[in-house]
Amino acid sequence: MFSFSDQNDLFARRCVWVNGPVIVGAGPSGLAVGACLKEQGIPCVVLERADCIASLWQKRTYDRLKLHLPKQFCQLPKLPFPQHFPEYPTKKQFIDYLESYANHFGIKPQFNESVESAKYDEACRLWRIKTVSVQGSVRSEIEYICQWIVVATGENAERVVPEIDGLGDFHGEIIHACEYKSGEKYSGKKVLVVGCGNSGMEVSLDLVNHNAKPSMVSRSSVHVLPREIFGRSTFELAMMMMKWLPVWIVDKILLLLTWFILGNTESYGLKRPSIGPLELKNTYGKTPVLDVGALEKIRAGDIEVVPGIKKFSKNMVELVNGEELAIDSVVLATGYCSNVPIWLKEAEFFSKAGYPKTPFPNGWKGNTGLYAVGFTKRGLSGASSDAMKIAQDISKVWKEDLKQKKQKVPTHRRCISTF
Ligand SMILES: Cc1cc2nc3c(=O)[nH]c(=O)nc-3n(C[C@H](O)[C@H](O)[C@H](O)COP(=O)(O)OP(=O)(O)OC[C@H]3O[C@@H](n4cnc5c(N)ncnc54)[C@H](O)[C@@H]3O)c2cc1C
Ligand SMILES: NC(=O)c1ccc[n+]([C@@H]2O[C@H](COP(=O)([O-])OP(=O)(O)OC[C@H]3O[C@@H](n4cnc5c(N)ncnc54)[C@H](OP(=O)(O)O)[C@@H]3O)[C@@H](O)[C@H]2O)c1
């Protein structure tokens, strides 16, 4: 990595040539690509807007979080989880694993550097990536120039905050699920949890466990599946069946088994979508809820399931069925979105919503050295599989380039001619 700056202009942007790919994001996906590249002997620069790796896990998740899928589906390439880890590692164990993963492969991200724009320069056939970092009152800008860019900013980069009538008039506390840590401070309070995805369900469960009174909004439909069926992970069982059976049959089997284990969830106000859980996930990317105890609390009446919201007022919420609830606080478990459209100046590979347009399994490679990791709606296992393909692809070009340079240019001139 070489850097240049114009000493005459205090405010000039520093310009850095990167000999290798730039990875944007130091979450599990970015680390996985970094590790696979290191294994191939390819240097890279990892840019991270936060001050730590895996900022989603370290800063934007609740305390009781555990991985929902068994550990063998969540470990990153080239370094398995320690043997003593439980079947479903805790958030802390997962973060410890990621820290040791980064150390093991010598990945040292550039922290506090937020990528503000990335554009392919047709004239020089290189990517120009601009970052901003603010430390105290000092703001600095850097431009990285490289041949390859790997987008690893995640499917959950930004919180989704819906516009709901009267939300601004509500006098109580309103937070997003990414700010929720524990239900401790909500003891005795009436809390409206908006959304019934995995976050909404688990926040509601945590609130009950801390003696709060949650009402959970389910405005449309949701598939709730048990985390395990006959002692085996539901996910693992589904993956096994998918090897021999078409998706629609696997869905029917899953729903039948779910009915035996959980009963009719519709009777608790949780309407089921008309298409099966795997088909829904494959077609619309909507993740089914893997129940870790919320359903029992719903059955017992500790979590009240309520329909969509009409409007908020000072200390009340009015629901679409006309019912009014007095509430103290609101937790918006309304999901997340990609931030790629904000900073990546490209419209061919990524959609307007910030996901690769090409469906799985081909959404990892674009044109002109552009790659995407962790955008397949397949969680950590999808990210690992993308990472290995990306490193292999870059390595082919890298090795070919190296061979040609060795043949053509005397060693002492190699770097200069590259720039
Ligand atoms: C509450 C919760 C629980 C989850 N549990 C599971 C689970 O159990 N199993 C599973 O497989 N998946 C789970 N997921 C999905 C999870 O997001 C991914 O599996 C995993 O974190 C994806 O890793 P990633 O690196 O792609 O994205 P992230 O973990 O989101 O990492 C992206 C990184 O990019 C950085 N970044 C973003 N924008 C910029 C920018 N402009 N410039 C520089 N850096 C930037 C972010 O700060 C972040 O550190 C969960 C998600 C949530 C929200
Ligand atoms: N332990 C774990 O593994 C774990 C835990 C938590 C989250 N996650 C993962 O993290 C990702 C995000 O999950 P998430 O639960 O945060 O988000 P999500 O799955 O996108 O769910 C968002 C929920 O908010 C609802 N919603 C959005 N806008 C609304 C509005 N205006 N009014 C009422 N409801 C509204 C949605 O309803 P509609 O369906 O009607 O739009 C949906 O129920 C998923 O991949 C999930 O699997 C994993």
List its salient traits.
five-stranded mixed sheet; binds flavin-adenine dinucleotide; 419 residues; 11 helices; oxidoreductase; FAD/NAD(P)-binding domain; alpha/beta; globular; NADP binding; single chain; 2 domains; membrane; five-stranded parallel sheet; binds NADP nicotinamide-adenine-dinucleotide phosphate; N,N-dimethylaniline monooxygenase activity
Largest sheet: 5 strands, mixed
* Overall shape: globular
Going by CATH, the homologous superfamily of the largest domain would be: FAD/NAD(P)-binding domain
Q: How helical, in percent, are the residues?
A: 25-40%
Percent strand equals 15-25%
Counted up, domains total: 2
Q: Strand arrangement, largest sheet? A: 1-2-7-6-5
Structural class: alpha/beta
CATH level-two architecture of the largest domain: 3-Layer(bba) Sandwich
Please give the radius of gyration in angstroms. 24 Å
